[in-house]
Amino acid sequence: MKFEKKEAWNQVRNVFLVIVGTLILAFGTAVFILPFDLVAGGMSGFAIVIDALIPIEWITVDMIIAVLTWSLFLIGFLLFGKGFAAKTLISAIVYPIGITLFLKLTEPSVLGGLFCLQASEYTELPLIISATVGGALIGVGCAVTFLSGGSTGGIDIIAFVLCKIFKRLKSSTAIFFIDVFIILLGVFLTQNLILSLLGIVSAMISAIVIDKIFLGGSAAFVAQIVTEKGEEINRAVIERMERSTTIFEATGGYSKKHKQMLTVSFSMQQYTRLMDIVRRADPAAFVTVWRAHEIRGEGWNETK
Which helix (H) or strand (E) segment is 246 a member of? Predict the structure, then answer.
């Protein structure tokens, strides 16, 4: 009974952290990025570009973000199944709502104009602050969401679709080129080099923050697990993560006990799931996780 309560609490905690991470992401985007039309790639940059291409007054940026988010979620569900959709569902609901609500904070009449940075008396300073603070908050929000086993979806889904079409294309490379394309479109449409450069700076800060918070931020990781429950963990990894392991016989240098050592490659979003599997099977297992510079081979797919 205690174990079941602990697992239930872990699930509640993960859902809560996904919501918090998504709200941080929405706050950083709505308050610091969108008011200045900083095209920093990602969903917000895509929405700003579309808004510039469709100059219809009643079509707002937050409406575009909502339509894009839910459309891409549906595409992800149809192409990658329930497992992928489950990881992005919470963010797909919370993110558009958060964007709309937090955009209200930037109005001059709300809270005395506290978050209306455009009306600041310090001329260009709000632009610099928005690029840096906005990029940092977006990075924190994404990292918290990833650490909780969730996914922000969005532009990542387009990248995964491209990887499905072009088998040798890595998702990290696809995301990079999509962001570059969005930023270049922003340069062309805004005709403002300063805004474009600040958008790039914001994107770089966001990437660095994710990199620092989430184990260095690589999209792929390798775990080494020393345990007495090797077969149980191996079976759970295959069934719950759709991954495989390599199993070695090992002997403890101090204890001289015979154990098994498993190595498994997994994606960023599967970190929490793997830790849950190991904790359930063998709480005393010794686990080491490190970044993989590159993973290639039959059966490897970062979208799982």
Answer: strand 246-251
What is the CA angle 7-217-96, rounded to 5?
70
- Structural domains of the chain in order of their starting residue, each with its CATH number: 2-213 (no CATH), 220-291 (3.30.70.120)
Q: Which amino acid type is present at position 102?
A: F
Q: Judge whether 171 and 219 are in contact, CB under 8 Å.
A: yes
Note down pLDDT in tens along the chain; length 304 residues. 555 666 777 778 888 888 888 899 999 889 888 888 888 878 888 888 888 888 777 888 989 999 999 988 888 888 877 777 777 888 889 999 999 999 998 887 777 767 777 656 555 677 788 888 888 888 888 878 777 766 677 777 887 788 778 777 766 677 778 888 888 888 888 777 777 788 888 888 887 787 777 655 456 789 999 999 989 999 999 988 888 889 999 888 888 888 999 999 988 778 888 988 999 899 889 999 987 766 666 666 665 5
Structure tokens at 80: 């990658």
CA 300/CA 279 separation, integer angstroms: 24
Report the length, in residues, of the chain: 304
Q: Report CA-CA distances (Å) from 270 to 146, 147, 241.
A: 9, 9, 7
Q: Please compute, for residue 233, the number of CA atoms within 13 A of its CA located in the half-sphere on the CB side.
A: 32
